[in-house]
Amino acid sequence: MSEQATARYTNDFLREVEKNVEEGHWVKMCMQCGVCAGSCPLGSAWAHPPQEIFMMIRAGKREEVLTSDSMWMCTSCYNCMVRCPRQLPITHIMHGLANYAHRLGLSPKGQPTQATATLFWNNLIKKGRVNELTFSLALYFKDGFVQGIKNALNMQAVGFGLMKAKRLNPMEILGGHAVKDQAGLKAMIAKAREIEDRKKGFAK
Amino acid sequence: MAEMKTAAYICSGCGIGERVSTAQMAKIAQKEGKMALVREHACLCDESGVQTIKDDIEKEAVTHIVLAACSRRVKTEAFNFPTVAMARANIREGVIWSQPEDAEHAETTQEMADDYVRMGCAEVKKMKVPEGNPNRASNKRILVVGGGVSGMTSALEMAEAGYDTVLVEKSGALGGWAAELVKRVPSQQPYADPADTGVAELAAKVAAHPRIALHLNSTIAQTDGAPGRFSVSIAQESGATVTEEVGALIQATGFTPYDMMKLPELGAGKSPNVVDQLGLEKLVKAANGGAVKRPSDGGEVKRVVFIQCAGQRDESQETEGRHLPYCSGHCCATSIKQAMYFKDANPDIDTMVMYTDLRVPGTGEDFYRSGQQKGVTFTKGKTSSVEAAGNACKVSFKDLILNEDVAIEADLVVLATGMVANSGMNIDIPEEEVEKMEVKPISILNLNYRQGKDMPQLKSGFTDSHFICFPYETRRTGIYAAGPVRRPMDMTQAIEDATGAAMKAIQAVENASLGRAAHPRSGDLSYPIVRLEGCTQCKRCTVECPFGAIDEDEKRFPVFNESRCRRCGTCMGACPVRVISFENYSVDTVGMQIKSVDMPDEFSEKPRILILACENDAYPALDMAGLQRKAYSAFVRAIPVRCLGSVNTIWITDALNGGWDGVMMMGCKKGDDYQCHFVKGSEMASYRMSKVDDTLKQMGLETERVATYEVAITDIERVPQLINDYAEKIKEIGMSPMKGFA
Amino acid sequence: MAKKEYAFYPGCSSQKGASASNYLTSVNAMCDKLDVTITEIPDWNCCGASIGYAEGGELPRLALSARNFALAEQHLPGKEMVATCAACWLAQREVKDRIDHNEVLLKETNEALAAAGLQYQGTTPVRHMVEVLIEDLGYDALKQPVVKPLEGIKFAGYVGCQTNRPFGIDGESFENPVYLDKLVETVGGEAVPYDQKVTCCGGALAFSEPEKSQKQIRDIVESAYDHGAEMIVTPCPLCQANVEIYQSEINKKHGTKLNMPVLYYSQLMTVAYGGTAKEAGLDGHLIRATRLEDITKK
């Protein structure tokens, strides 16, 4: 018997998920009905619907789960969660798995939602509030300068429209909205991150 | 007995008086029905109405009464005159409520009412007041076969209710399989943890109870008799036989685990590390609170795999369904419980339940969740093989969620093999086939009955009983089945079953002592009377009785054991020479009704359709259709029958000869999922009617003139539709050419 | 009726020059008409939105929302928090739900908050503006100020996801919530039944998975058209932005002619209550709601 076969279906990865993934202790409660899979607006985009992800965790398929881009298809619509007959917080578990995979550096390279999420978080942490203009610009340029120009040109009409409607302010690039206690906010986030990293064993 | 004096009472209440002429009905009762006394009343069921009837019975010496009022199924408390014969003409539900209230229908509505009065008068004159079974016996002791949880529960329940009980157990101790269990699946809130079995406590109570006589190491050598007078020979270990006289029996002989040795592909017999569920209980018991060790080498158990449906629910082509076709119901919860043995002792042990469908109904769902909370994992997968691999087992399976073939290692594999009923012999297997069997079936009850030594089985070896209405009633009156011998079940269900069967056994001995029928005609005092001088020894009654009530004497005449009889009348329907009858239900009580109606001529455009409706389902459905004012053809005349099995073909030929244009027979569903209250009645009727076609052809009639329908009590919408469709069909075929010859 | 006062959490998108600035404009006008006072929580921060999880993880996200609660408790004690943004409201509720029921997370969150000199007490509930309207004021009170009923206009009430799931409005079903239709009817409009009422618009994935999101948006708008709606109305800023902004993109790619205005409930109410087009933020749309603008001119 191969070593891999022996390791399969042991509960090691399930235990790891329970310990380190947000709401991961719920994974064992899935009863494999598949309502989540049928309720997802982006269902067809998931290589492995949530139900299957839960089974893969129980089957010990660590690599396959953490490198999957399925969790990154979550739009946070919460449909799976309200329909789950076992009340699993599926949305949160998917978020938790995505975050865990990302923190371990296992999530697929260049996954657009992950890249967007990182830009978004960095943007909000900078001032405590999201700056939509710098966020959008960063998004357009995330794939390099040339692509960025193309992206921006593509959305030019929309951008001008929003500007005209006073819903996108070009002056935001100079600073824009911010919390006053930026130092406090940054210290708070740093502390929170420090506790979480310690708990979940993330390398600093 | 006093001279017959008849009386008819025509009620005009509930709107009857506004819809039909009660005066005309009264006249018919008098002139055509030849009733000695005829009275009209504005509300017959009220105090003055009931008093009128009572006075007539007392002062006028009336012995036979016809009530032309509402259905015989209602007002039974008001119209309770046990000393006289009574027929009830259903004018309310059957006529005014089933017919549209308009001028157009007034004439046919009146005709219906008139006919029902004629029929009531014809019926009552052929009725007698039932006097009760003269061969009654009043032994109220009850014998229980089997000392497991079901048997012990039945015995204790009856003993506590004040009935002396005899408990026969083939082994040397009480407890059955349940005594082998370390713990049981919980039966109480919060349904989260394995619970104490309670078996030791139950056994101690049974052993110490002053009303329970215990026979251990004993089997039944012979069972003879009938409710109220069973004589049971008990063979003891020493070879001696003792006889217990009892009034009823409960068979609680439980189950045998399906033999896992029939599952070599799942590793049975290939590795000591593969056990069945009871095998695991033994291992845990042997560990005596310590860690369960691997049987092959005493090594540490790190992973246990539970394989559900092992040799169960097998309808697959490749195995040709050679294992059990059914689900045993308890095994999923049992495996969860067994996984908890490990998880509760050491959460680091991996326990995986491999299932195709997890079946944990009711509170089992809570237990399932508790198992998940404790870290028992569940894999939807189909095991292809289990092989010995050193001191471990290699389990190969297909993960049905991930759609992959996988092989994993386990230290211990537990097969959930399910239950096989201990029902004794299958009496439907012909003797010549039994002769050929390598292992001869062993009877449990050794009934000295014409129809076989054990109780009839329905399928898969479980004793036959009406699964919805009369679950504990077997097809042998006074003998009740409880627990897994009846169907696969868990301990909670077995306890409930045992309690139900105990109540039924108590009812049986009480009814028997009063000469009354047991269910479903509980309390009926009528019983089958046979005029032996006319009997041709054809054996049809003895063969067709669904309850084995009729034996044969040495000259092959039928011997009726009245207290085994359920009073369905299947024997009456079967008898070609019509020598079997009940005092208040006979070939004549129905036959005379058929002959009594006013038959319009061939050119009247008023066909007549006879409905013979089973009183258990079809007749109530007709009543309820009336109650809901669902109109149906005015050309029908309905006669309730005890069971379609009681329908004698003479009624059909009489009806057709008498110019009836069609006959609708309405009975319960037959087959493996039968709804017939008498199990085989509707099946017998259907068989007999399959032969009616020839008779019809001989008479030069269309085969459609006799039709049989399966009708459920809930068919309130469907019954009027069936009637109307059939009336339409008769209109198409045309009027019967037989009118006017009778 | 006693004057209603709340601690207000406007959220990033409602700020001046941001994508839902006209939402805030109309909310302010609506609250004025209804005599509801909303006091902005001093120095509030972003909630992390529905995409903050990926980089932010659990505890930093909990800390962000807890900080808003702590500030409200400190500066506006005794006042319930009200949010207008679906994601803000949801994040606050989720965080409260979790730390109120988990002592370890509560302790850790407060440890992080202490670094900013704050503490979470758990005394402030959070409400969505819609809850304030229908629960605290009630449909009758919402009807009273109507002076220009939106007669003859058919709206597709687009509830979307996050005001509906997982918490939703009390007493409403997840599959067919009706409060938005009732609000439309309260201000004299007609709510059309259609089958994409709670369909996801793609949410934050509108940026990262444009094709997939735009398919969602197209389904929603086309269904609204198919059922005779002239405008879409929503309680969610991201829904509003996605469903309005990308219609032109979809048209470009697929040759469709989608051009349906997407409004906030607060804009409908402001107009019905007699507010000007500017007060109702009607100037903040790429697809103008001309029939509403006409009503304001009457």
Verbal overview:
Chain A has 204 residues and is mostly helical. Chain A folds into two domains: 3-103, Orthogonal Bundle (Fumarate Reductase Iron-sulfur Protein, Chain B, domain 2), CATH 1.10.1060.10; 112-200, no CATH class. Chain A has helices at residues 3-7, 12-20, 35-39, 50-58, 62-66, 79-83, 90-103, 112-127, 132-140, 145-154, 156-164, 182-200. The model of chain A has no long low-confidence stretch (mean pLDDT 89). By secondary structure, chain B is α/β, with parallel strands linked by helices. In chain B, strands 13-19-14-15-16-17-18 form a seven-stranded mixed β-sheet. In chain B, strands 7-6-5-11-21 form a five-stranded parallel β-sheet, with helices on one face. With 298 residues, chain C is an alpha/beta fold. Chain C folds into two domains: 4-129, Glutathione S-transferase Yfyf (Class Pi), Chain A, domain 2, CATH 1.20.1050; 141-297, 3-Layer(aba) Sandwich (Rossmann fold). The interface between A and B is medium-sized, with 20 and 22 residues.
How do the helices and strands line up, and which of them pair or pack?
The complex is a heterotrimer of chains A (204), B (742) and C (298).
Chain A: H1 3-7, H2 12-20, H3 35-39, H4 50-58, H5 62-66, H6 79-83, H7 90-103, H8 112-127, H9 132-140, H10 145-154, H11 156-164, H12 182-200
Helix pairs in contact in A: 8-9, 9-10
Chain B: E1 6-11, H1 16-19, H2 22-31, E2 37-41, H3 47-59, E3 64-69, E4 85-90, H4 92-96, H5 103-124, E5 142-145, H6 149-160, E6 165-168, H7 199-208, E7 212-215, E8 219-224, E9 230-235, E10 241-246, E11 248-251, E12 255-257, E13 274-276, H8 277-287, E14 303-307, H9 331-345, E15 350-355, H10 364-373, E16 377-389, E17 392-399, E18 404-410, E19 412-415, E20 419-421, H11 431-436, E21 479-481, H12 491-513, E22 529-530, H13 540-544, E23 550-552, E24 558-560, H14 570-574, E25 580-581, H15 587-596, E26 609-614, H16 618-627, E27 636-641, H17 649-657, E28 662-667, H18 681-689, H19 692-698, E29 706-710, H20 718-733
Parallel strand pairs in B: 1-2, 1-3, 3-4, 5-6, 5-11, 6-7, 11-21, 13-19, 14-15, 14-19, 15-16, 26-27, 26-28, 28-29
Antiparallel strand pairs in B: 8-9, 9-10, 12-20, 16-17, 17-18, 22-25, 23-24
Helix pairs in contact in B: 2-5, 5-15, 6-7, 6-12, 8-9, 9-10, 15-17
Chain C: E1 4-9, H1 21-34, E2 36-40, H2 53-56, H3 59-75, E3 81-83, H4 86-100, H5 103-114, E4 126-128, H6 129-137, H7 139-143, E5 154-157, H8 179-186, E6 190-191, H9 205-208, H10 210-226, E7 231-234, H11 237-245, H12 247-254, E8 262-264, H13 265-272, H14 290-297
Parallel strand pairs in C: 1-2, 1-3, 3-4, 5-6, 5-7, 7-8
